[in-house]
């Protein structure tokens, strides 16, 4: 995850410190966080995504705008995110409001990625059913050779791009002896960050 123009308020700075600590302790895929959404029937759904940036007060990941999660975000912008880093035994819970990133931001990220990932983004109709995995593989190989042989261009699909979560709640949790765990929280209230502690 890249950190850019982070606010100098405590929870953002703390998040970056905990993240760097996880990386320094060789945490695999520290950028993977579980994001939960709620669908039109009020049912929650969770899945991991890779958060590529913490830009200003926004956590950012990339995905399909036609996926199941994107449908949930259209109806309910409230999301919850959870990171757990086993190498440091730290959990960080965040909550906030989700929206789409600008076209410019999505373009910059898309055109900076490896071609293989972009082909998958072009090919895959994320969250939709398909007859078999082999059919998806065949679609991938077809588009890959079309791009490599110049029959079609590697263009960002309009329905693929960034999602940004403007964070309004952080909980930093550290495991401690006898389950007397440490829970330091920050909640954005009338524009100010309130710091408090929760019992474990
Ligand atoms: C570690 C990890 C990272 C992932 N990163 C992403 C990601 O950045 N973007 C994405 O769309 N899906 C990512 N996925 C796949 C999602 O978990 C999920 O299968 C996909 O987004 C479809 O979810 P949906 O049907 O709820 O929309 C990742 C999965 C794992 C296990």
Give a verbal description of the structure.
The chain is α+β, with helices and mostly antiparallel strands and 200 residues long. The protein has a single domain (2-113, 159-197), classed as Pnp Oxidase, Chain A (Roll). Helix content is 28%, strand content 38%. The chain has helices spanning 10-24, 68-75, 103-111, 115-123, 133-148; strands at residues 2-4, 32-38, 44-50, 53-55, 58-64, 78-85, 90-100, 160-174, 182-189, 192-197. Strands 1, 2, 3, 4, 5, 6, 7, 8, 9 and 10 form a 10-stranded mixed sheet that branches. A hairpin with a 7-residue loop joins strand 8 (160-174) and strand 9. The longest helix has 16 residues, at 133-148. 22% of the residues are buried. The mean pLDDT is 96. The protein binds flavin mononucleotide. Flavin mononucleotide (FMN) binds at residues 29, 32, 45, 47-50, 61-63, 67-69, 126-127. Flavin mononucleotide binds next to strand 3, strand 5 and helix 2.
């Amino acid at each position: 995850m890249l950190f850019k123009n982070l606010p100098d308020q405590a929870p953002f700075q703390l998040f970056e410190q905990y993240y760097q600590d996880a990386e320094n302790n060789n945490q695999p895929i520290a950028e993977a966080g579980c994001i939960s959404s709620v669908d039109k029937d009020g049912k929650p759904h969770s899945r991991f995504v890779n958060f590529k940036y913490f830009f200003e007060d926004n956590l950012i990941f990339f995905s399909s705008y036609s996926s199941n999660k994107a449908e949930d975000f259209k109806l309910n912008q409230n999301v919850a995110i959870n990171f757990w880093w086993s190498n440091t035994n730290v959990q960080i819970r965040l909550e906030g409001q989700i929206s789409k990133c600008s076209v410019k931001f999505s373009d910059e990220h898309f055109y900076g990625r490896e071609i293989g990932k972009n082909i998958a983004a072009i090919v895959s109709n994320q969250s939709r059913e398909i007859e078999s995995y082999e059919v998806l593989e065949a679609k991938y190989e077809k588009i890959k050779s079309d791009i490599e042989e110049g029959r079609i261009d590697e263009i960002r699909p309009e329905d693929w791009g960034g999602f940004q979560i403007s964070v309004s709640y952080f909980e930093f949790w550290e495991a401690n002896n006898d389950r007397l765990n440490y829970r330091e929280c920050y909640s954005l209230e009338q524009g100010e960050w309130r710091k408090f502690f929760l019992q474990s």
